[in-house]
Amino acid sequence: MSDVKDINVNQLAEEFKINGFIVIEDFIPIDILDRIYKAWLPIRDREIERLMGISNRGLKRYAIDIPLERPFIEPKIFDHITLVKLFESILGKDYIFQDYSSITPFPGAVYQQWHRDLEPLFPGMMTPTIRVALHIPLVDTTEENGSIEVIPSSHYIADKELCRGKWFDHVLGKGPKHIGNYHSIRLNVKRGSIWLLDLRLLHRGMPNVSNSSRDGLIMHFSRPWFYSGRPLKHMEDTISRELWNSFSDHAQKVLRG
User: Any idea what the CATH number is for the domain that residue 10 is in?
Assistant: First the structure.
């Protein structure tokens, strides 16, 4: 796990607020990732079989919920002091957990449309960050296997005319064609690193032209008043009692919501 002394949380928070995303390299020990990845593969394969191979997030792209159990719920990750301080700075001290999922592109996945996962609450008005996605790559994300493309600072776009929906290909260009002059970034993030995303940031998944899937997990956190459809019940009724009792008071507070 990254040494807290080597991480400038204030600088990361400022970078996040300006760009709408940050990458923290070498954050998760590989042995923890190995356990998560080993447990993930049969769950992923069973869900794809249940879907009869019909992808539910575009061609060869699968959205799968993550079970709230070991080894996926790992306090050494989501309750790490660095992330706690970051979330408190970005979302406020009472931030809460929302949900846990994975969107996995397999070979043959194509361009997603430019989109944002959360529309502005008040079109025409900028607001602070409402919801953050914590991305945990289980494999290296590369140009070949479809790493995410983002447009820095686009989370502040709240123009009423532009923000009539979540899709933006008509403004930015479809597939490899760019319309206008903007500067996007590919988040080629190596295994063991994490990245955080303001869900209002314009982004898209890229084609997977490799021979393997780009597996990764996504935990969502938000301000306490924001409800995104999570079942209204206490998390201690969802997570095993043994696992729940192993969490810190802070982790229980975040998960309980």
Answer: 2.60.120.620
